[in-house]
């Protein structure tokens, strides 16, 4: 049985929380489970609207989908969310230019299906930590081209510039991943409010030291705030093998 714990926190510097999340351990439409994080961007309330609209549209589209293939279900749902946010952004000046990241996952028969737009991340955590998604950001492109190092990217002044987002243009380019899961794997989804305050090794250490997904999420957010809490912090931790207790 899949067990999920999730939490979102405003952080220490922002006046409002523009992150949104959704998780269901039970079937949602033809998907047996679903978890996602959206990190909104835009002026006051616009980013909040973009992320919440994206989460609600994806949930509704998944519920109504008659498809049985998980990648197609996620693709159609995210495309519908892009259309909704883009339409709203063009309808009122207060919402002009808004957008949001989204990272979503579902587990079916020991396979993790992932969809990603933007720089919110999904990791696989076991004895090690592995980022499954690839950031759609300017600094990630600079790292890939060899222009800057991975360490330089952490503190680069342009690290908040993303190259793909939901709702910014009338179409959206989505990355998809499929990962074979093994016993002991945990699935971590988060906004950059976590990863800008903790590096991957610090995240791994906290999760391995706590050993409980609820305690891990709480401590990750606590440490991110302790380290500055410069942005909203959203964390989802899922254990796909929760009920398989060692004999």
What do you see in this structure?
By secondary structure, this protein is an alpha+beta fold. It has one domain: Phosphatase 2c, domain 1, CATH 3.60.40.10. The chain is built from seven helices and eleven strands. The strands form two sheets. Strands 2, 3, 4, 5, 6 and 9 form a six-stranded antiparallel beta sheet that branches. The two termini are 17 Å apart. The model has no long low-confidence stretch (mean pLDDT 94).
Helices, strands, pairings?
Blueprint: E1 3-9, E2 19-24, E3 34-41, H1 46-64, H2 70-89, E4 99-100, E5 102-108, E6 111-117, E7 121-125, E8 129-131, H3 138-144, H4 150-154, E9 175-180, E10 186-190, H5 192-195, H6 200-210, H7 213-226, E11 233-239
Antiparallel strand pairs: 1-11, 2-3, 3-4, 3-5, 5-6, 6-9, 7-8, 7-10, 10-11
Question: Short summary of the structure?
Answer:
This protein is α+β, with helices and mostly antiparallel strands and about 250 residues long. The protein has helices at about 45-65, 70-90, 140-145, 150-155, 190-195, 200-210, 215-225; strands at about 5-10, 20-25, 35-40, 100, 100-110, 110-115, 120-125, 130, 175-180, 185-190, 235-240. The radius of gyration is 17 Å and the shape is globular.
């Amino acid at each position: 049985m899949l067990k999920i714990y999730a939490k979102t926190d405003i952080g220490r510097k922002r006046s409002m929380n523009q992150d949104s999340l959704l998780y269901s351990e039970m079937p949602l439409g033809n998907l047996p489970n679903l978890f996602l994080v959206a990190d909104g961007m835009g002026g006051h309330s616009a980013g909040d609207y973009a992320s919440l609209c994206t989460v609600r549209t994806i949930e509704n589209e998944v519920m109504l989908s008659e498809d049985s293939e998980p990648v197609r279900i996620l693709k159609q749902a995210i495309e519908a969310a892009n259309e909704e946010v883009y339409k709203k952004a063009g309808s009122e000046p207060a919402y002009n230019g808004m957008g949001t990241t989204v990272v979503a996952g579902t587990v079916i028969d020991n396979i993790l299906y992932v969809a990603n737009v933007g720089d919110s991340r999904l990791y696989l955590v076991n004895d090690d930590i592995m980022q499954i998604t690839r950031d759609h950001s300017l600094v990630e492109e600079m790292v890939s081209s060899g222009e800057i190092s991975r360490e330089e990217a952490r503190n680069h002044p342009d690290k908040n510039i993303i190259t793909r987002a939901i709702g910014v243009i009338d179409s959206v380019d989505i990355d998809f991943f499929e990962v074979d899961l093994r016993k002991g794997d945990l699935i971590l989804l988060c906004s950059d409010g976590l990863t800008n305050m903790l590096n991957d090794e610090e995240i791994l250490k906290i999760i391995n030291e706590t050993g409980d997904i609820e305690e891990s999420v709480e401590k990750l957010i606590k440490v991110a705030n302790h380290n500055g809490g410069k942005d909203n912090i959203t964390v989802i931790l899922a254990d796909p093998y929760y009920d398989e207790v060692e004999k």
